[in-house]
Amino acid sequence: MTAVPRLVFSAPSSGHGTNALSVGLLAALADRGLDVAGFKVGPDHVDAAYLGLAAGRPGRNLDPRLTGADRLGPLFAHGAQGAALALIQGTMGLYDSVAGRPEAESTAAVATALRSPVVLAVDVAAMGQSVAALVHGFRSYDEQLWLGGVILTQVASDRHEAMLREALDDVGMPVYGALRRHELPPVLPSRRHGVVPVLARDAEATRAVRRLGEAVAGTVDLERLLALARSAPALSVPPWSPDSGAPVGDAPVVALAGGPGGSYGHPEVAELLRAAGAQVVTVDPLRDEALPVGTSALVVGGALPESYARDLSANRRLCIAVAELARTGRPVIAEGTGLLWLARELDGLPMCGVLDAIGASRDGLVVGYREAVAQSDSVVAAAGTTVVGYKQHSAVLTPRSGQRPAWSWEGGSPEGFVWRGVHASQLGLHWAAYPGIATRLVTAAALPSPVEGVATPA
Question: The pTM is what?
Answer without folding.
Answer: 0.96
